[in-house]
Amino acid sequence: GTGLTVYPGLIDMGNSAAHVTLKSTTDALVIAVETPDTDIASYEDVVGRHLERFGERDGLRVHWVRSEAK
């Protein structure tokens, strides 16, 4: 197995290391990654690369905007 658990709109990146939520709007796919600050750049890279690869034919590009921790 891949260690990933996928639910509608949620990806659990194995052992709850990170939670990725996806929400579709009319203008964008909003992606939220919840993980410790020390790991965020790695998950942005992994998720972004995969999404861009999946959407390569349509020219999909991922742009991350970080919000303050809650």
Short key terms for the protein model shown above:
26% strand, 1 helix, alpha+beta, 70 residues, 4-stranded antiparallel sheet, 21% helix
Distance between the termini: 32 Å
Assess the beta-strand content as a share of residues: 25-35%
Counted by DSSP, the helix tally is 1
Mean pLDDT: 81
The radius of gyration over CA amounts to 12 Å
The beta-strand count equals: 4
Would you identify the regions where 5 or more consecutive residues have pLDDT less than 50?
none
Q: Biggest sheet, strands in spatial order? A: 1-2-3-4
Q: What structural class is derived from the secondary structure elements?
A: alpha+beta
Which bin fits the share of residues in helices?
A: 10-25%
- Judging from the principal axes of the Cα atoms, what is the shape? globular
| H-E string | EEEEH
Biggest sheet features: 4 strands, antiparallel
Notes on the protein architecture:
This protein is α+β, with helices and mostly antiparallel strands. The protein has 1 helix and 4 strands. The chain has a 4-stranded antiparallel beta sheet, covered by helices on one side. It is globular and about 30 Å long.
In short:
Helix content is 21%, strand content 26%.
Compile the SSE list and pairings.
Elements (H helix, E strand, L loop, with lengths): L4 E3 L2 E3 L6 E6 L4 E6 L5 H15 L16
Antiparallel strand pairs: 1-2, 2-3, 3-4
